[in-house]
Automatic annotation (TrEMBL):
Full protein name: Ribosomal protein L11 methyltransferase
Gene: prmA
Main location: cytoplasm
Function: Methylates ribosomal protein L11.
Record EC number: 2.1.1.-
Length: 295
């Protein structure tokens, strides 16, 4: 396979994508041409909100073609179009044959949550110091333990589970089921795991089975009644909308544990939850915070 790489301004990214589609490109990817430099621009978006920007000020667009001829022909045809003004062909290069499975696997190493608690892909040996572990492979649903928000929730689960117990647990927005499985492993009495995405519900059931734990997974309406621990690692905007619902699921004396929140969003979350519970920051990592409240 061969890839054609272009440099173009933000406003040309859309039209180039459509052109590559018409030219039968096998795939198209867009990256910040200034990534890893002082000029790198972070683009953060949230579900349900308009995208902050369509692309980067200087975007690198790479299209994959089955043959060198097709990639070079695409470059020639594009360069002749009016909309190509301001764009530049960086080159056509062969994509070396690789063992993609091995390459993908090599990007997922065991993740340490605490010195004794690890998330370990199935193709890895358990680390010698692991006293507790979750076996999990990357899949369609979010939650492999590589994201700080997941890690902070798991650390809280391990600490609370070991010291005081978790009681009945609700994992709201379960993704891969990683938090629900972690809660089950740290002694939860019963675990309900819900998600709006049916693929996440399926992944949670599969991952729970692979880890030998019992839980009940389903769509959000499966969450019923009160739980001593309610976990929700989603994002600030949906967490604000869900405030009354999540708080209503927390049993007296129980904990609400929220993640997916950036440091600068702490006050808006506190305000949104104030009518029901008093949230405070319990942990932070890489600009993300964990917020916890006790009812
Ligand atoms: C960031 S992932 C977290 C996955 C996992 N719990 C973890 O900690 O790694 C958020 C999950 O919440 C789900 N989600 C988003 N909005 C939701 C909502 N309103 N109700 C239930 N689940 C939701 C998404 O489908 C996604 O699987």
């Amino acid at each position: 396979m061969y890839e054609l790489t272009l440099l173009c301004p933000e406003e040309r990214v859309d039209v180039l994508g459509e052109a590559f589609d018409a030219l039968d490109a096998l795939s198209v990817s867009v990256e910040d041409a200034d990534a890893q430099t002082e000029a790198e621009q972070a683009l953060f978006g949230e579900p349900g909100m308009p995208a902050p920007r369509e692309a980067w000020q200087r975007s690198r667009v790479t299209a994959l073609f089955a043959s060198q001829g097709a990639a070079e022909e695409a470059a020639r045809l594009l360069a002749a179009q009016d909309f190509f003004a301001g764009c530049q062909v960086l080159g056509v290069a062969e994509v070396p044959e690789q063992d993609w499975v091995r390459l993908t696997q090599s990007q997922f190493d065991p993740v340490q949550i605490t010195p004794e608690f690890w998330i370990v892909p199935t193709w890895h040996e358990l680390p010698a110091q692991a006293r507790q572990s979750i076996r999990l492979d990357p899949g369609m649903a979010f939650g492999t333990g590589t994201h700080p928000t997941t890690r902070m929730c798991l650390r809280w689960i391990a600490g609370q589970g070991s010291a005081h117990g978790l009681g009945a647990v609700l994992d709201y927005g379960c993704g891969s089921g990683i938090l629900a499985i972690g809660a089950a492993k740290f002694g939860a009495d019963a675990v309900d795991a819900v998600d709006i995405d049916p693929a996440a519900v399926q992944a949670t059931e599969d991952n729970a089975r692979a880890n030998g734990v019992q839980l009940a997974a389903g769509l959000p309406e499966r969450a019923q009644g009160e739980y001593r621990t309610v976990l929700a690692n989603i994002l600030a905007t949906p967490l604000k909308v869900l405030a009354p619902l999540l708080c209503a699921h927390v049993a007296p004396g129980g904990h609400l544990v929220l993640a997916g929140i950036l440091e600068r969003q702490a006050d808006e979350l506190k305000e949104a939850y104030a009518p029901w519970l008093q949230l405070s920051v319990a942990d932070s990592e890489d600009g993300w915070i964990l917020m916890v409240a006790r009812r």
